[in-house]
Every structure is written in structure tokens, then in C-alpha cells.
Amino acid sequence: MNSVRLQHFLTRNTYLFSLLLLAILLSVNYSLQDNLFELRVLNNSMRTLLPLILLAVGQSVVVIGGGIDLSVGTMVSMLVAVLVKLINAESSAADIALAVLAACGVGIVAGSLNGLAVSYLRLQPIVTTYATSFIFSGVALLLLPRPGGQIPTELRRFYAQTPYGVPLSFYVIGVLLLLWTLIRSTRYAQYLFATGSHSQAAYTSGVPVRVVRFSTYVWAGFFAGLAATALTFSTGSGQANIGDNMTLDSIVAVVLGGTRLSGGKGGIAGAIIGVMILRVIRNVIFFADVPTWSQTLVNALIIIAALAGPGLFGLVRRMVKK
Amino acid sequence: MTLTLLAQGIVKRYGGVIAVKDGHLEVQSGVVVTLVGANGSGKSTLSKVITGVVAPNEGQLLLNGVPVQFPTPQAAKKRGIAAVYQELSLIPDMTVAENIWLTNEPLLGGISLRRGEMRRKTQELLDLFAGTTSNNLTPDTLVNTLPPDERQIVEILKAISSQPRLVIFDEATASLDRSQVDRLFELIRQWKREGMAIVLITHRMDEIFRVADRVTVMRNGQTVGTVNAADTTDREIVQMMIEGAAAPDAGRMPQIDTTAPVRLEVRGLRCGRLQRADLTLRDGELLGLGGLQGQGQTELLLALFGALPYAGTVILGGKPVRFRHPRDAMKHGVAFVPGDRATEGLLLSRSILENFLLPSWQRYGIIHDVESARQDATTAARDLSLVYSTLDAPASSLSGGNAQKVVIGKWLLRRPKLLLLNDPTKGVDVGAKAEFYALLRQLTAQGTAVLFYSSDDDELLGLCNRVLVLQDGLVRDELSGERLTRENLVAASMGTTHEQR
Amino acid sequence: MNLSSVSTGIQRSFPFVRHLTPPLIALLLAVLLFFAGGLVKPNFVNINQATNIVRLAAFLGIIAAGQTLVIISGGEGIDLSVGAIVTLAAMLTFRYTNGNNGLIWWGFVLSCGAGLAVGFVNGLGIALLRIPPLVMTLGMTGVVQGTILVVTQGEMLGAAPPLMAKWIARPLVFGLPGVIFIWLALGVLMWLLLNRTTYGKHLFAIGTNRTAARLSGVRVQQVVMITYMLSGLLAGFGGFILLGFSQTVFLQLGNNYLFPSIAAVVVGGTLLTGGMGSYWGTMSGALVLTLIDSLLRAMELEQAYQLIIVGIILLALITVYGRQRSLRQ
Questions:
Q1: What is the pLDDT of residues A91-116, one digit of tens each?
Q2: Residue C150's domain spans which residues?
Q3: Touching B: which chains, 3+ CB pairs < 8 A?
């Protein structure tokens, strides 16, 4: 591979560093927890991880497009409330499908609100989505003043399936990656990356920047719907703030996955890897018998170290150049 | 299919500022029109109205006699109108091929990108400039790794790729080197024969006569006339541009005092593209740096200012120094005027006062003595005959020439002993240039040593007593006295030292 | 266009309000909101209520001071660790003084020192390792919270010195609590820092254009470092002051001030993109946010409606002057 191609490859596949990190962490995890890859354990972890994975995928589309969405967590809370309202222990498959469609639909509407404000009113994404997050929390609380809800037991069993010995989550991830590869080869993807990398240049080149930006928030809303669905299926009930803490995790996961926070560089594979890294760090800490009260600190220090990795690399390179 | 585009009565206001007050431009298929005018005369704005980037307040565009409106650049592009900007429309994180075909990608079944096809067609376009670019310029190269001249070429090819009927080149030659400009002009003549309409915006007089059929001149936001290139002279065009005032004559510096102390001595300096530079500069001397663009001149200046890491020896005022930050250089009386005012020279949204004093705040105490700071800035503004409303107005309110005065003025407040200039008159109008030359003369008379890089050969020939010509990161020749001629300058910049004694 | 499209819009329609800058709009809005409160609830408008609102706004305002500096510094500058630092500082003072008035000064030093240390690490990560400020300070939030857990082992032991409540939260002079005077003094100091010191000028310079600043001799990374350290220090100070009011410490104490501190800065007209802003704008912003909160409380709405209304008002406020430049010129 010549240097141009290599450079090209590295720019396109920003998650390689993260993949390496995940591999290292996984092997540490495995050495501490030898049943890590047993189907039951793996399925359990992946099942609880899928909501954040879905949310981080949506977040990464927004970030690649040059924005950020601080409302996705409260959006999940709101959409879980929608689902819990529509589903009960006796719901039929058709009812459930309708409920999921409704959740994704409301997610798309909520995302459109963000998209309109950021893209057409030209408001700063950080404060805008912070402001809308209040609205979504409020709606969540209106819909679900008290924790509760029930889902059919078949549904929980369905979500815990492992067809051909592979957890359902992996099929979902596979479909996501396949779709992303397809999208990556469309004009839309070119527009998305161009908008995130240099919006003025993209606009001058004739890219419909506003539409593209708007669409990223709609994607985030849609994925919040999917995340809420996964969360409801795995917990079986809801409360009005169940997703609130997922926002910041989704951003950290996106960045850990090698996506550039200022836009124009990255992909959803990175986001998926990022979420797994966050989880594996927690596993390692748990199985390494870190004292309870130190776990948060150790967890945060490892994340800081992971974030600092590429930076240290760059610093050393700058020093050598000097 | 032929095309006639007529823009008439175009008006564009930004708040209270009128950028264009009466813009006219006409161009047809098979014709090259150059649009010239001093800085701030409105030619860029007028061209952006035509390409749909800027929305005009008044006036109309007629395409083949039919009124049209371009609410977006896409709309103009659909009608066959494309523009080449100065690096404005490239996406840094995308490849050359992706950039060229952005919004125009060849698709399979209307959905999937045909990357192979994109690569092949890009290579065909790149071949147009074959021999004038480096090997690094391939369809898969990321644009952010390209030097400015190659980015400009990609920009040109991008505009051409959609096979437009009208192309506007907005100072597209400014960052190209000589061989690239020559190639571009060959191509322009060819495209013209093929029936393309071409508008060329330029600051370089010689380019007008090399390719233009007609010259349209703008002054203060108004189109003041259009003449046939064959029937006019550069003097006449300059007259139209500056309204009555005579074209300035740079006038060489007086012979320097060879007994004056050596201010700067550079031995074996190496920095990025610059492979080796040796030079000696005395107090009161103006030493020119010449050659094609991007031969290491900028690196030399930035290294001397401590803004780039380097290897080699720098002796300043008899003492060896090694600067790691511009601040270190400033403490030793070194000043640097960058070429690009908007991105390197000014804090556009901050006040003129703050721009003047940015390097000097320390001297006004822990809690600033604002009154004396303001007085110093007022004095500097007066000395530079700066045209401004108040010192508290943002720097963005200044015209090009006046903005550059502020960039220089902030260093004059520190009375520099060594002044480094990186193509300071690029995009500055004729009148402001003359004032700038007078200022340089005054500074050298006071004993300031000046190292002056210019991409304008006339400027070097007119102003300097001694010029170092760089090529491929090496000092190819040192020209002075009898040997300082245009012929030698060109020869050395092309890498052949022309022996003519 | 940059500063504020609306203020120019208003200026065009009403030439006499030429000097209506975003901070002034925020201040006028605060006054308006206060009297609007009178319409909703007649006993809302009185001197005690006004004092109480300014007192509450003071805590937010002090905590948002560092945030103002960080946001002005540009480069996507933001400090998400202020909330955690506030809690850390309050916890340290709470624990160390253990209600002992004689140790207040040491508590003060400990609070500021801890904040400074966290800010230093933030600065290292951002200036040296080029980690985006958002994720760096978010990561440090975890570190600080983890540190709090390690130190406390889950038990918030200690007490607030009685003297702190007296000086900070209770009426001190003319019926006004000390925190208002502290806030005003901080306002003067911040004004001096931003407008009359070399650091302030360099801060605005790096927020506007880092290349131009560097080529004018500004040590950009150093200014960035100092800015995050100051932000940490001021958040630490904010935590110390807050303890005088809260009298108790819990893990989420400072968290409630994190996003409001950013909102106060933005509502006060400081550009999130950097290079433009003021602390007195932030002070006005803190007043506006506190008033909205108090008003909604006074209206005794359900929490769900309160949240929705806050969201809509915030959206409206940033629509008024948080707009970015259009791509089409």
C-alpha cells in the first residue's frame, strides 16, 4: 500500500485505534472473568448495552455532521414513557409493533424540533439541545408521573433470543454496520461528511447544508426511538428519567470510537466500539476487585487515559518534529 | 449552445456598508473578460452575485436576455455557471476525487457512488496540469495534505468538471506558480475556443494582456467601463482603476551603508520545505526574497520569527539566538507581518485599538493604563494615515489596505529592529501599496533591517537592492546591482542561474 | 452580524436603542420578568423577594464566572467539570472545618486549591494533548466525583462553620446577605481581569483567532491553561461560597449548577464560539435564569409543566440572540 492509500485508509477508518484498545481491554477482562464469552453472560451484557449502542450511533451521525445532541438521553426517557403507555402485559405483537413505530415517530418529531432550531433558526447545537432536553423531560414526566409499566413476558423472551447461538444484539449491530456501509456509498454520506468537515465550503459547493444538518438530528431522534425500544424490552418497565444519564455516555462513546467531535470524520463502527469500551472498563474494574468507593475514580481515570491516548501520540510526534 | 450573461444595476449592501452600488458585467461564449479594480472595489461581490453565493439587494441578471435569479450556488450551477474561488470550496477531510465530484458524483443506478469512475475521471482532469504538480497530487490524496497551489488547481478542476458554460476565476492565479499559470492560460485559451465564457478576476496586470479579450474595470463598487484588451494599455487601466491619480512608481531604496552593523546572520537554516538558507542582513537594509510561491520563503520567515521549529544557526545583533515562540523573537525586536490579513493578521471582530496593541499590552502595567494605550494607538493610526471611524470599531470595518496598515502598525508601536514581511501587498490596491512603500523607505532610513518576501516580481525589482531567489528550498541566486534584472530573477526562480555579467 | 443579529435588527427599527447590547437586553428582561411575576402572583414583587432572587442568582453567577472565561477562550471551550468541582470544594470545606469557625480560611484555601488542581489537569489535556474541551472536562467530572467517593467513602461527614452562614447567606448589611457583596466584588474583579489586564486581552485574542494571536506573540497554550485553571479555581470558590448557603453537602450539589452556568453565559450574550462576551452579561443571565425558576415555582405548576416552560423560554432566549452566521451572505 502506498502512502497516499494508507493515509486514505487511516482517515476513513478512524476506529482502528479504538478497536485495538477494545481488544486489549477485552483480553484483560477475559483474564479476570473467564466466563466473559459464555453465551449467557455475553447475551446479558449485550442486551443491556444495546440501548446505548443505538443511541451512540444516532449521536455519531449528528457529530459527524458537525453538531451535537445533548437531548438524546431525555428523548429516550420520553420515548420509553410513550412505549410504556402503549404496551401492557397483554399487548399483541401488532400492538407492540405499532407502539415501536409510534416511539420512533415521536423520536423523529423530537429530532425534527432540534433540527429545525439548529439548522433553520441557526441556533448553537449545545444550548439548543440542552433547552429542548427540558421539554422532553417535561413530556416524559407528564406521560409517566410514576414509574411503572409492564410488557408481555414473550417480548422479554424474544429480546433475549440467541438465534444460531449468537445474541440478538449482534444481529442488530450487523444490520447497522451493513446499512452504514450502504449509506457510506451514497451521495448523502458525501454531503454529511462535507457538511461536518467545512460547512461553508460545502455550501459553496452546492451541498444542501441545512437539509443535511436537519437530517442528522432526525436520525438521532429515530435512533433514540430504537434505543427506547431496546431499553423497554430489556427492563420491561419505565420511569420518567430512565434515559437521562445516557446523553453524556453517548458522547464519550462517540469520541472514544475515534469520531472527531468537531465533525467530518468518523463512523458508527467507532460509536459501537466506544460503548463496548465503556462497558468493558466497568467489567474490568468490577472483576479486579477494586474497592467499591474507588470504582468511579478508577473508571474515570481509565476513560481519561483512553481519551489522552491519541493526544499523547500527537504530542510525542510534535516533540520529535521539534 | 452559446450563452450571454448580463448583470446590470447590481447593488449589495452589508448593513450600512455598500459593497457594490452599480455593478455591470457582460460576457459571452468564447470570450475572456477580466474584471479588475482596486481592493474593495466590489469585483468579488459582483462575481458572487452572479454565482448565487451572495444575494443582491437590487439589480438583475439576464441569461440570454431572460431575467434569472440564483437563490443558491446550485441554481447557478444548474444553468451552467461555475466559479473558482480561492480555496473557499474544498472540504479538507475529503479526497481530491471526492471534492471534484461533490454534488456531481457519478452514480450507479442513481444511488451508489461509482468510485472507480470518479477516480478515472479525476485522473483525466489532473492530467491537464501534468508536469506542473507534484507526485503527491492523485485522486486519492486528502485535500488537507496539499500545498496551496495544488489546492487551487483542484479548485479549478472542480469548477471545470461540471462542464460549465461560464466560469468565473476569482483571483485563481494568486497562489499558482509560473508554470501553473502558463498552463492555466493555455487551458483557458482552449476552453475559450470550445465556446466557454470566462471571467477572470486578477490583480496582476500582465495576466490581463495575456488572455483577455475585454477588460471591465470597477471602482468603489461601480463598474466604470469596459475596454477591448487590444485597444488599451496598462497605464489606461490603472487610470480607470484609481481615478486620475498617477500609477505609483515604487522607486528603489537608496544604496545601503555597507559599514552598518549586521543585524541578522543566518547559517544553514533548515525548516520544512526550506532545505538550506544562508544570509546576512545589515541595519537599514531591505533584502528581498524572490522566487516562485512555496519555495521555502514563508518557512524562512516563520522560522526566524520563532513560529516554526528549525535547525541551523541564527545570529541576531551579534548574538546567537534560538526562538521557540514568536514572543521570544519579539523580545529581541523582531516583527512579522503575515500575508493573509484575515486569517493570520487580524482579530476581525475585535476593535482596531485591540488589534494595534495586541503585541504590546504588557507595557501598560498590571492594570492597564488605558488612556496612554489609546494615545499610542491614535498616534500610530495618524502616522499611518489610517482611515477609520473610531478606534473602538471592529477591525472588520476597515478596507483591505487600511486593515493591512493595522497589521503593520501593531509592530511599529514596538519599534522593531528586524521586520519580516511575508508577501504583505498581496491583494492590496495600488494606492495603499504606494503608501506602504513610503513606509518601508522611512523605516529603513531609521535603521530597521527588513526581510521582504514578495510574490510580485515588479515589487522586488522596483524596491530592493538585493534579492535572494529561492527555488526548491535552496537559495538559487543572489541578485544585486547590475545583475538584478527581471531576466535573472525569472531564470533563477526557474532553477537556472543565468550568467549575464 | 456576529455580535447579535437581533440587536442590530432592533437598532434598525428603533434607532434610539443603539446601545442595546445582549447583556443589557438580559438585564432589562430580568427586570421585566420580576414585575411580570407581580401579575402572576401579587405578593411576588417585594424587596424581600428581590433580595432572595439576587441571592440565589449570586451563587449561580459566581459559579458561572469561570465558565465565562472558558467560553470566551474559544476553541469549542466549555467546562463541564464545574459542577463536580463545586461539590468537591464544598465537601472538602465541610469535612475539613467540621463546623470549626477558626478553620474557615483553610477551607477557603483548600476549596480554591482543589479547583485549581482540577483546572490544571483540564488545561493539560486540552492545551497539550488537544482533547476536545467537552470530553476532557466531562472525563474530569468522573474523576472528581470518583475522588469525592474515595475521600468520603459514601458518608458526608462534617459540618459547615456557623460563621459562613452568617457572612454569606444571612442578611449582613442593610438586610442584604454577604454573598451579594461578594458577587459584586467578583464582578468588579472580573471586569478588571477581562478589560484591564494583558491576560484579558490575550483571552479575547485567542477566542477570536488563534493563529493571528500566536503571530502577535500571544502564548496561546499558556493562556488556555490559565483559563481552565481560573475556571477550576472560581468553581472551587463557588463551592466554598455555596456551602455557606446549603449548610450541607450531597453528591449532586454542584451538578444542578453545571448547565445553568453555561446557559447563564449564553443568555448574557457571550458567544459560544468565543472571542466576544462579558461577565456582567453572565451576571444578567444568572438573574434571568433564577427569576424564571422562581417565577415558575411561585406559580406552583406541576414539575412537568415547569420543565417544559423552562425549555421553551431557553429556546426563545437563544433564538433572540444566540443565532449563528448564515452561510449565505
A1: 888 888 999 999 999 999 999 999 99
A2: 22-36+46-320
A3: A, C
